């Protein structure tokens, strides 16, 4: 998996496995109901969040003050940041949609 140390690789693998389970649940939900609901949108956003964490597992083990000092250097980190933002937006949209409708 991703990362330099063993703990990063294990963390990345576990998070990717969790993302696969959440994705399978979202796909089954779409298949059962035949339509995309706000819960499904939130599920897909959760998958994106988990994948973004799995791409850069080093951030999970940093102190919060050190994490904000790091600059995005390679394409994997930039891609992970974009996935994180899109995932947060989907989760928030799904949550608001469930509350309103």
List the helices and strands and how they pair.
Blueprint: H1 6-33, H2 38-55, H3 64-67, H4 75-100
Helix pairs in contact: 1-2, 2-4
Describe the model.
The protein is mainly α. 75% of the residues lie in helices and 0% in strands. It contains 4 helices and no strands. The chain has helices spanning 6-33, 38-55, 64-67, 75-100. Helix 1 (6-33) packs antiparallel against helix 2. The radius of gyration is 15 Å and the shape is globular. It starts with 5 loop residues before the first helix and ends with a helix. The mean pLDDT is 86.
| Main sheet characteristics | none
Average pLDDT score: 86
Separation of termini?
Answer: 40 Å
Helix run count: 4
Radius of gyration, in angstroms, nearest whole number: 15 Å
Quaternary state reads single chain
- Described by the principal axes of the CA atoms, the overall outline is globular
Tell me the strand percentage band. under 5%
**Which series of helices and strands comes N to C?**
HHHH
Uncertain runs: none
Structural class: mainly alpha
Question: What percent of residues adopt helix (DSSP H or I)?
Answer: over 70%
Number of distinct beta strands: 0
Briefly characterize the structure.
The chain is 75% helix and 0% strand. By secondary structure, the protein is mainly alpha-helical.
């Amino acid at each position: 998996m991703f990362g330099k140390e063993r703990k990063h690789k294990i963390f990345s693998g576990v998070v990717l496995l969790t993302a696969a389970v959440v994705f399978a649940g979202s796909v089954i939900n779409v298949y059962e109901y035949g339509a995309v609901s706000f819960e499904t949108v939130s599920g897909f956003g959760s998958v994106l969040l988990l994948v973004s964490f799995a791409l850069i597992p080093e951030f999970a083990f940093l102190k919060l003050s050190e994490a904000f000092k790091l600059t995005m250097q390679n394409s994997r980190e930039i891609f992970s940041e974009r996935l994180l933002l899109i995932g947060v937006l989907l989760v928030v949209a799904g949550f608001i949609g469930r509350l309103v409708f």
